[in-house]
Automatic annotation (TrEMBL), chain A:
PANTHER family: TRYPTOPHAN SYNTHASE ALPHA CHAIN, CHLOROPLASTIC, TRYPTOPHAN SYNTHASE, ALPHA CHAIN. The lineage of its organism: Bacteria, Bacillati, Actinomycetota, Actinomycetes, Micrococcales. Its EC number is 4.2.1.20. The active site is at E51 (proton acceptor), D62 (proton acceptor). CDD domains: Tryptophan_synthase_alpha. InterPro entries: Aldolase_TIM (IPR013785), RibuloseP-bd_barrel (IPR011060), Trp_synthase_alpha_AS (IPR018204), Trp_synthase_suA (IPR002028). Pathway: Amino-acid biosynthesis; L-tryptophan biosynthesis; L-tryptophan from chorismate: step 5/5. The keyword Cell wall biogenesis/degradation does not apply. GO terms for molecular function: tryptophan synthase activity. This is Tryptophan synthase alpha chain. It comes from Brevibacterium rongguiense. Tetramer of two alpha and two beta chains.
TrEMBL record, chain B:
This is Tryptophan synthase beta chain. GO terms for molecular function: tryptophan synthase activity. Residues 59-382 form the Tryptophan synthase beta chain-like PALP domain. Pfam families: PALP. It comes from the Bacteria. Keywords: Amino-acid biosynthesis, Aromatic amino acid biosynthesis, Lyase, Pyridoxal phosphate, Tryptophan biosynthesis. It catalyses: (1S,2R)-1-C-(indol-3-yl)glycerol 3-phosphate + L-serine = D-glyceraldehyde 3-phosphate + L-tryptophan + H2O. The gene is trpB. GO terms for cellular component: cytoplasm.
Length: 261, 405
């Protein structure tokens, strides 16, 4: 059966949880085996969807925590194909894997080839932080052909026309980037998050997940009240760098409790 | 008023250009695009801009015939478009002043910029001082070292200079950091991209502010020689001085357009910034264009003795001109550029920027091809004062034990 983020989100709701938990880690940090172990631990601790990050030399959307981690991964020689191994590992552990990648890496692998290999590895789709639907014709076709989710971002600055376009181009869920800024844990989750989720739903999106800034179970619980999924990245990366796989497992458990697992 | 073709306004130049950026920036880019397009048909804007060009920037810039230098160019006549005589010392100010005017129209109160050699940072800091904007300039930590005087200039002008310590610590990383700043403060901040790169509308808009170079030069060469030049030479980092001078000649089929990239220590060495010789199409910093990258698409570090050309990407319109063969791009190595710098200094009494020295080295090649009947126009995009530390080291001009307090 093809992996699907919608199925994972719906399963969390059917189990009576207020939202699903989506965790990001970059492949290759601290090294490839270590990153795979951390992703498996996330799944075991209650993470529903794992965002497998493809390290990139120019991560324009990422804050310092993720920048440092992907630099380490690239210095260690991580390759695009390692992300496909991570996807297989997450799927084997029972999680739903999606790729998070800046577009040039997919483009250079070949959009069709990447879609084919991602689907074969058990991946559900791709989150594309620097690809907007306007530039995505090739990816729309490839994702249709291989039955993959295409997860575009929506921002507080997005106009109603843009939200319509994002909602209709997306499949699986829409990623509501709740604050204007780069990735990184924040003391409080922006009030605009709820408003943005409402606007994205109003534009026709069935499922909306919220990312940027969530770092603990209490914040996750807050976001879970209005989102279908809560996305956590930098806080997990920081936990991995400070306390290793055990740190990731502990934070994941806290976050999972927050979303009502 | 001005009428622009689709090719001139973007978002695409053939297969290149576009907008590969976070969704959060789309509305800001749309606002810039709209404000810019309105400005093109607004007589008040045209008056403001041409007033600043005449009374502040020092336009039109001179066209100087370089007769002694020309003896080293196969005897062809060589004309230098003197962007080095602009206020702040390079062509960058043409664009910074234009974008500052747009920023004021959009009600922004803060300008940010990336800079490599520091010329664009200085130009933006200057525009910010003139208009009373707050200003922050991102500069790779390696570049703040090799261009320390420009850092001091920016700070004297009231700008905050942030050394960027991520990645390769050069221009591309400064651009990443400026983008991160912008996405978080897009409400009050305008990002003054310094070259014809980045997401739409920057490549087309920056070209439109630099086109004054080509428009003036075309008239000046015609007036001086009674005909068009055979070739137009410019250095190409991001490519704004080249696009500015090429733009006026695109429709003149007899005019050969020649762009010179940084060949660094040689294309075969891997230490260069020759995107057209050593790169391939991809996406970086918001547009589809030629990029230095590895097999997976990770950006490869560039190298050039000239900080202003040390950039792994290039403006998308250049990629289009390259693929359609309307312009020809060749690498010029560090040593060849430095030799041209010394030659122009000694034959004409003009010290060029190391960036512009790449165009001069190219003109020496092109002049040999054309011979005595040829006319070569060179964009002398900046002056070399900022490069004295590098030049003194390269040519060994500092006396042993000498210090400057």
């Amino acid at each position: 059966m093809t992996a699907s983020t919608a199925a994972a989100l719906d399963a969390a709701a059917a189990a009576g949880r207020s939202a699903a938990l989506i965790g990001y880690l970059p492949v290759g940090f601290p090294d490839v085996p270590g990153s795979l172990a951390a992703m498996e631990a996330m799944v075991a601790a209650g993470c529903d969807i794992v965002e497998v990050g493809l390290p990139y030399s120019d991560p324009g959307m990422d804050g310092p925590v993720i920048q440092r981690a992907v630099e380490t991964a690239l210095d260690g020689g991580v390759r695009t194909r390692d992300a496909l191994r991570a996807v297989e590992a997450v799927a084997a552990a029972g999680g739903t894997p999606v790729i998070m990648s800046y577009w040039n890496l997919v483009l250079q692998y070949g959009v069709d080839d990447f879609a084919r290999d991602l689907a074969a590895a058990g991946g559900a789709g791709i989150i594309t932080p620097d690809l907007i639907p306007d530039e995505a014709a090739h990816w729309l076709a490839a994702s249709d052909e291989h039955g993959l989710d295409r997860i575009f971002l929506a921002a507080p600055s997005s106009t109603p026309e843009r939200l319509d376009r994002i909602a209709s181009a997306s499949r699986g869920f829409v990623y509501a980037a709740s604050t204007m800024g780069v990735t990184g844990a924040r003391a409080s989750v922006d009030d605009h998050a709820r408003e943005l989720v409402d606007r994205v739903r109003g534009a026709g999106a069935e499922r909306v997940c919220v990312g940027l800034g969530v770092s603990n179970g209490a914040q996750a619980a807050q976001v879970a009240q209005f989102a279908d999924g809560v996305i956590v990245g930098s806080a997990l990366v920081r936990a991995l760098s400070a306390d290793g796989v055990d740190g990731v497992a502990a934070l994941t458990a806290d976050l999972a409790a927050g979303v009502g697992a | 008023m001005t009428h622009l073709t689709t090719e001139e306004t973007g978002p695409y130049f053939g297969e290149f250009g576009g907008r590969f950026i976070p969704e959060a920036l789309v509305p800001a880019l749309d606002e810039i695009d709209e404000t810019w397009r309105k400005s093109l048909v607004d007589e008040e804007f045209a008056r403001e801009l041409s007033g600043l060009q005449a009374d502040y920037i020092n336009r039109p810039s001179l066209l100087t015939e370089a007769t002694r230098f020309a003896q080293h160019c196969g005897g062809a006549r060589v004309f230098l478009k003197r962007e080095d005589l602009n206020h702040t010392g390079s062509h960058k100010v043409n664009n910074a002043i234009g974008q500052a005017l747009l920023a004021r129209r959009m009600g922004k109160t803060r300008l940010i910029a990336e800079t490599g050699a520091g010329q664009h940072g200085v130009a933006t800091a200057t525009a910010a001082a003139l208009f009373g904007f707050e200003c922050t300039v991102y500069m790779g930590a390696e570049d703040t070292q090799r261009q320390a005087l420009n850092v001091a200039r920016m700070r004297l002008l009231g700008a905050t200079v942030v050394p960027v310590t991520t990645g390769t610590r050069t221009l591309k990383d400064a651009m990443n950091e400026a983008m991160r700043d912008w996405v978080a403060r897009v409400d009050d901040t305008h990002y003054v991209i310094g070259t014809v790169a980045g997401p739409h509308p920057f490549p087309a808009m920056v070209r439109s502010f630099q086109r004054v170079i080509g428009d003036e030069a075309r008239e000046q060469v015609l007036a001086r020689t009674g005909r068009l030049p055979d070739a137009v030479c410019a250095c190409v980092g991001g490519g704004s001085n080249a696009m500015g001078i090429f733009a006026a000649f695109l429709g003149d089929e007899s005019v050969s357009l020649r762009g010179f990239e940084a060949g660094g220590e040689g294309v075969e060495s891997g230490r260069h910034a020759a995107r057209f010789s050593g790169g391939r199409p991809g996406v970086l910093h918001g547009s589809a264009t030629y990029i230095l990258q590895d097999e997976d698409g990770q950006t490869r570090p560039s190298h050039s003795i000239s900080a202003g050309l040390d950039y792994p990407s290039v403006g998308p319109e250049h990629s289009h001109l390259h693929d359609t063969r309307r312009a020809v791009y060749e690498p010029v190595g560090d040593a060849e550029a430095m030799e041209a710098m010394r030659l122009l200094s000694r034959t004409e009494g003009i010290i060029p920027a190391i960036e512009s020295s790449h165009a001069l080295a190219g003109a020496m090649r092109v002049g040999q091809e054309l011979g005595e009947d040829g006319i070569v126009l060179v964009n002398l995009s900046g002056r070399g004062d900022k490069d004295m530390t590098t030049a003194a080291k390269w040519f060994d001009y500092i006396d042993e034990g000498a210090t400057q307090e």
